[in-house]
């Protein structure tokens, strides 16, 4: 396959490219592109500059996987985020005149992704001219830049669908008709990404050995994981030819931009290719030493329950030196992100307790039996919004007969404050519910508050110590995002002091669940191979395997069918990867976003002081709309005017 070779200019997209466009990418203090590659020091600056175009997963407001694109996190848009691009997009205000989070043009909070691709091409075209760099270093740098270029293409494809393939830069003297490029079919883009990564992988290291100087740089495992994700997108319902709405999506050449081949054989072939790619990524990750995170053994004065909660938070919040589950992480600082999620446990309230989990997410997690709350006949689903007191028994719960069912108090000892009253929704839930979320009268575990000390019980009704203080400082829905706050933060400071960690871009649990999903799609019915990859995640979360757990469900046969297991795997991803910026992308590639993103944002009434007032479900936003057109983000109208060969995405 032959790909177009051209340069992508800046704001007047795909029309003209001036010489000055080249000069704005050279390192500070250098005057020309030639100088930028005159020695190793300058070329290394250019090399790391290409990494700077990676989307910032440490930003809750500018990354499409968080507030802007999903339904997991909410905040008070009326008081704090009126002018924020992500907030406006979340409220259904996307448009074609000036799109929010515009990653195509680099506007409205979005990064200039095409400029990043252009810089990658400039690097590849010039690095061989650098005199004082070793051959091995040159080969590795080129391989990393190729993977970055592939990832930038993938990220743009995941937002916009068909995109131009920028393999090389066009000469600045090229005529306008050569610069007016076309969008390429999604299948061609995916093939390009896969081929570019295959070309780069042999020249990449299996893992990073120089932790202090090379952390975040691309490895074989990272590269193969990006390839796997791209092929998974190609096999998923949004792009696999099954979406009727794209059947006539063509450009002015009459080229079909998203496949309309929805035959069973074609879709099967896509999933088989994706399955192979994900397994290669997993094998490379294992070879590099990546493994599911478990909180280190040998802990003192800590219950197994607390240690498990540290495990389920630590797989995200522990640093890469001890957390080998993260295959690729974002190197941007996330201090502000953490502060917005932290309860008001400090003297100063500034910048805390604004980002909250929606009530929908609280209802997404399983019961303690490892099944959805509406599928568990032993869980009181109909009365979940009523309240219940965690009554302290007369006898010491630690002295109860270990062979009998523990009392409610004993079972919830590390989950809900003793003698406190909270919603039934917060009782008898799976460990990830308590590790990822904190709620009114729930226990917030921190290393600063050991199990043998005074428990930190969150009290966030209006007037409580952690509740509404003033209109701009309150937990918006009543559920704190505990998952994104390190358990290592101190509590003896006046202001929030976040523990720096790197948000994961890809972690091993993600790959395991992608592999289970792909395997399930290639088989007539799920088998032990499919179950084992899902169960490995469930076992780490303190649950039984899928088949064993569903014996207690209303439909015990659900895991035995391809369709039933597909639904289970989806739910497992939505729980395991919650609040990590993945959910909106999954909902779109599954074509499930219309089902989830048209529901109102709900939570408890944070203004309620009395018990009966606080535990009233409140609708915080009811007008969000997601329709067929929102599966692909729009191109700015002026961009299409500048290049008449571009076509707008369907519906816009």
Key descriptive features of the protein:
652 residues; mainly alpha; two-stranded antiparallel ribbon; 10 strands; globular; single chain
Question: Which secondary structure elements does this structure contain, and how are they paired or packed?
Answer:
Blueprint: H1 19-23, H2 33-36, H3 40-51, E1 73-74, H4 85-90, H5 113-126, H6 135-160, H7 176-179, H8 186-200, H9 211-214, H10 220-235, H11 264-287, H12 304-317, E2 326-329, H13 335-341, E3 356-357, H14 359-364, E4 387-389, H15 408-411, E5 421-423, H16 431-436, E6 437-439, E7 479-481, E8 504-507, H17 508-522, H18 528-540, H19 546-550, H20 562-576, H21 583-589, H22 593-596, E9 601-604, H23 611-614, E10 617-621, H24 637-642
Antiparallel strand pairs: 1-3, 2-8, 4-5, 6-7, 9-10
Give a written overview of the molecule.
- With 652 residues, the protein is mainly alpha-helical.
- 50% of the residues are buried.
- Helix 8 (186-200) packs antiparallel against helix 10 (220-235).
- Helix content is 36%, strand content 5%.
**Order of neighbouring strands in the sheet with most strands:** 1-3
Radius of gyration: 25 Å
Instruction: Give the number of DSSP strands.
Output: 10
Helical coverage, percent range: 25-40%
Tertiary shape? globular
Major sheet description: 2 strands, antiparallel
- Strand composition percent: 5-15%
Overall mean pLDDT stands at 89
Care to give the gist of this entry?
The protein is mainly alpha-helical. It contains 24 helices and ten strands.
């Amino acid at each position: 396959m032959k790909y177009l070779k051209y340069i992508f200019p800046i704001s007047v997209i795909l029309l003209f490219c001036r010489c000055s466009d080249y000069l704005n990418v050279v390192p500070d203090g250098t005057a020309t592109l030639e100088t930028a590659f005159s020695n190793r020091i300058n070329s290394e600056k250019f090399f790391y500059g290409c990494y700077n175009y990676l989307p910032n997963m440490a930003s809750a407001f500018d990354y499409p996987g968080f507030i802007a694109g999903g339904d997991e996190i909410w905040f008070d848009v009326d008081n704090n985020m009126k002018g924020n691009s992500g907030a406006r997009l979340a409220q259904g205000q996307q448009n074609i005149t000036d799109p929010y989070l515009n990653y195509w043009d680099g506007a409205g909070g979005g990064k200039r992704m095409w400029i990043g691709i252009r810089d990658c091409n400039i690097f590849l075209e010039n690095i061989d001219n650098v005199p004082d760099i070793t051959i091995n270093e040159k080969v590795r740098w080129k391989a990393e830049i190729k993977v970055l270029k592939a990832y930038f293409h993938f990220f743009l494809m995941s937002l916009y669908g068909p995109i131009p393939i920028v393999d090389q830069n066009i000469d600045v003297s090229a005529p306008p008709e050569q610069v007016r490029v076309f969008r390429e079919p999604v299948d061609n883009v995916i093939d390009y990404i896969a081929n570019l990564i295959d070309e780069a992988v042999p020249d990449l290291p299996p893992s990073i050995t120089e932790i202090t100087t090379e952390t975040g740089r691309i490895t074989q495992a990272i590269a193969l994981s990006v390839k796997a994700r791209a092929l998974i997108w190609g096999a998923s319902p949004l792009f696999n030819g099954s979406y009727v709405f794209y059947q006539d999506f063509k450009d002015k050449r009459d080229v079909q931009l998203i496949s309309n081949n929805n035959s069973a054989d074609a879709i099967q072939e896509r999933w088989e290719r994706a399955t192979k790619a994900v397994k290669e990524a997993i094998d490379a990750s294992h070879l590099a030493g990546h493994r599911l995170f478990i909180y280190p053994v040998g802990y003192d004065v800590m219950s197994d329950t607390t240690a498990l909660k540290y495990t389920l938070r630590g797989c995200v919040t522990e640093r890469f030196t001890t957390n080998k589950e993260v295959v690729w992480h974002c190197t941007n600082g996330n201090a502000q992100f953490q502060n917005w999620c932290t309860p008001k446990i400090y003297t100063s309230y500034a910048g805390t307790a604004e980002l909250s989990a929606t009530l929908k997410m609280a209802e997404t997690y399983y019961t303690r039996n490892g099944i959805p709350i509406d599928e568990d006949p032993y869980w009181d689903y109909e009365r979940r919004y009523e309240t219940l007191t965690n009554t302290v028994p007369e006898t010491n719960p630690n002295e109860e007969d270990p062979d009998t069912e523990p009392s409610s108090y004993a079972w919830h000892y590390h989950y809900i404050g003793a003698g406190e009253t909270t919603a039934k929704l917060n009782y008898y839930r799976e460990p990830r519910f308590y590790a990822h979320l904190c709620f009114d009268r729930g226990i917030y575990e921190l290393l600063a508050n050991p199990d043998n000390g005074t428990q930190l019980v969150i009290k966030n009704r209006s007037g409580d110590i952690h509740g509404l203080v003033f209109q701009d400082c309150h937990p918006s829905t009543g559920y704190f995002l505990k998952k994104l706050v390190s358990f290592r933060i101190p509590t003896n400071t006046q202001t929030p002091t976040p523990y720096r960690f790197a948000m994961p871009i890809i972690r091993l649990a993600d790959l395991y669940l992608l592999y289970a999903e792909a395997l399930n799609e290639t088989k007539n019915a799920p088998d032990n191979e499919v179950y084992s990859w899902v169960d490995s995640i469930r076992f780490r979360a303190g649950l039984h395997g899928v088949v064993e757990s569903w014996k207690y469900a209303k439909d015990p046969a659900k895991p035995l069918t391809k369709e039933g297991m597909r639904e289970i795997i989806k739910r497992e991803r939505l729980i395991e990867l919650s609040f990590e910026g993945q959910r909106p992308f999954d909902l779109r590639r599954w074509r499930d976003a219309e089902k989830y993103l048209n529901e109102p944002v709900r939570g408890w009434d944070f203004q309620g002081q009395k018990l009966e007032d606080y535990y009233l479900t409140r609708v915080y936003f009811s007008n969000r709309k997601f329709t067929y057109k929102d599966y692909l983000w729009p191109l700015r109208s002026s961009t299409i005017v500048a290049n008449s060969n571009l076509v707008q995405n369907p519906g816009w």
